[in-house]
Amino acid sequence: MNSNYKRLGQYIREVDVRNKDGKKDNLLGVSVSKVFINSIANTIGTDFTKYKVVKINQFTYIPDTSRRGDKIGIALLEDKEEALVSQAYTVFEIIDTESLLPEYLMLWFRRPEFDRYARFISHGSVREIFSWEDMCDVELPIPSITKQKAIVKEYNVLVDRINLNNDLTNKLVETAQAIYKQWFVDFEFPNENGEPYKSSGGEMEFIKELDKDIPKGWRGGTIGEVLATKGYIRGPFGSALKKDEMVGQGIPVYEQQHAIDNHRNFRYFITEEKYSKLKRFAIKKDDFVISCSGTLGKVTVINEEDPIGIINQALLILRVDPNKLNPICFKYFITSNEGNNLLIADAGGSAQVNIAKREEIESIPLLIPDTSQQNIVSKFLTICDDKINIKLKENDLLKKTKELFLTKIATLEDSL
Q: Left if phi > 0, otherwise alpha if psi is -120 to 50, otherwise beta: which for 125?
């Protein structure tokens, strides 16, 4: 053991307070993201007196690590005075918070190195368990309380900046969606006099395909109509892209999570040789990559900075012809409530829900403004998108900095 490392067991104690009053409020679970979440357990007929009480600044973790991938479910209660958790969970607290800060210890638990250690130590023939004794045997550096506070403060600066950027991004997204609604739903875009088109008497005409009135000069179309030639690309069959063909470095493989979480962290790669055989599944700038299985209809748009790669079998590429419809207009259609609901409306499948068939997706109706109006609205939407992308890039750097910070906690010297 490193000389400045201490055994955690001397700083913590298990807590087992039962909900003897039978309260039913604030029933929480613990996620592998290391936060408390509202429980989704079926509690009909449940004896709530068996549940454990967790109080503010106490920890809860899930000893059973069998079905949680490479993460350990553990969280610190910070925003409630008390809550309830399953009797299968372990609750514990720090004995003396003048020696060890709960927030500092939680930073240690957020480290990927802790997850790897806990998964390695977990044992059991039927279920793998990270026991209370195993938790007590964890070793970590415990500097002075002043140093701990400084470390927590530095980490929180990063977290606060990420949260601020998330808030700004959400507001920008709301602005872009409001612009889309103004133009494509309410038809209140500015006319030649700068007045709202529809409410100021702009000429409308009924379109049978859409079953509604739209501005004169606009027309109804379908997704299939605005796609480029060979612009519908479903990922390769599983037999064409097997996990045992993946390599540590090479051409990246886009997965469901890239569409769901809109990130560019890659787990799997293929060789140049394999890529040449699957090149028809490669992404291009302005492609719309869509999740097709399980979590449906999540969309990520490929930009010029994204690495060239191929999609896997759980993804779909829709490639729009910019001469038929500006891609950014398509983006806000396919991510709007109306467009996204249409995209996933005909999903099917018995065991696993899958996105609708090609002919059903290509037949989805959409509005096509005249070219001049497309150009105008696309400028407004592009301004929002550019600002959103700046904030997303900032957050990517901040998250990497945060991860690096957590990794370096183990090497920080007690200089304060």
A: alpha
Cα 414 from Cα 245, distance rounded (Å): 46
pTM for this entry: 0.81
355 — pLDDT class (breaks 50, 70, 90)? confident
User: Same structural domain for residues 125 and 265?
Assistant: no
Give the structural domain span for 153: 148-190+369-416
The amino acid at 303: N
Pull the structure tokens for residue 310: 């191929």
- Written as six digits, the tokens of 102 are 């709960």
What does the alpha-carbon distance between residue 247 and residue 266 come to, in Å, rounded to a whole number? Answer: 12
CA gap 408, 113 in Å, rounded: 11
Q: Rounded to the nearest 10 degrees, what angle do helices 145-184 and 102-110 cross at?
A: 60
Rounded Cα gap, residues 268 and 341, in angstroms: 31
377 lies in the same domain as 299 = no
Q: Are residues 234 and 289 in the same domain?
A: yes
- Separation of alpha carbons 96 and 93, rounded Å: 9
Beta carbons of 79 and 28 less than 8 angstroms apart: no
Does the structure show a pLDDT above 70 at 305?
yes
The answer to whether residue 64 is domain-embedded is yes
Question: Is residue 291 within 8 Å of residue 315, measured between CB atoms?
Answer: yes
- Over residues 9-19, the mean pLDDT reads 96
At residue 222, what are phi and psi to the nearest 5 degrees? -135, 165
Residue 400, classified by CB atoms within 10 Å of its CB into exposed (0-12), middle (13-18) or buried (19+), is exposed
